[in-house]
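Severity: low
Component: inverse-folding endpoint
Summary: output formatting inconsistent between runs
Steps to reproduce: submit the following structure tokens with default settings.
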């Protein structure tokens, strides 16, 4: 588990921009965190780094938003999903294999998700601070995440 203490939304966005360089089409990223923890801030920054210029908003009420850019991005918020059947899961996850996919509240989707390449947990640590935990079961991805967090820590003089 790799940890980064984000001092404000701008630092969370910097993490998102750096994360975009690690992700590839077909990757699934699990996002965990309370409402207001910065999940959409992070996804928006990844989207900009992937060449997406359209407004990026939380899909809380729409369930999923797909964005087209140099690399497509699918942003799913399963918070309002309850006991999905196969058809609903198919609709929600449609196109995930041809995009970078972020899934908030993944537990609502049961076992429908493919193995996530990265899991990110954002925790409130103050009015603007967030503790961001990044994890990956893939050794190469963990190494890349470690390098990008080390770079951010150096930039922001983190211990």
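Observed output (run 2 of 3):
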């Amino acid at each position: 588990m790799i940890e980064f203490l984000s001092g404000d939304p701008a630092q969370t966005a910097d993490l998102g921009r750096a994360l975009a360089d690690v992700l590839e089409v077909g990757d699934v990223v699990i996002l965990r965190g309370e409402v207001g923890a910065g999940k959409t801030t992070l996804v928006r920054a990844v989207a900009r780094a992937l060449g997406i210029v359209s407004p990026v908003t939380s899909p809380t009420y729409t369930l999923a938003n797909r964005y087209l850019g140099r690399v497509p991005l699918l942003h799913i918020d399963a918070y309002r999903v309850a006991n999905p059947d196969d058809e609903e899961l198919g609709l929600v996850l449609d196109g995930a294999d041809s995009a970078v996919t972020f899934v908030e509240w993944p537990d609502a989707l049961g076992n429908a998700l493919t193995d996530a390449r990265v899991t990110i947990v954002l925790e409130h640590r103050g009015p603007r601070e967030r503790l961001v935990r990044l994890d990956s079961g893939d050794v190469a991805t963990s190494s890349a995440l470690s390098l990008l967090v080390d770079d951010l820590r150096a930039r922001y003089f983190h211990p």
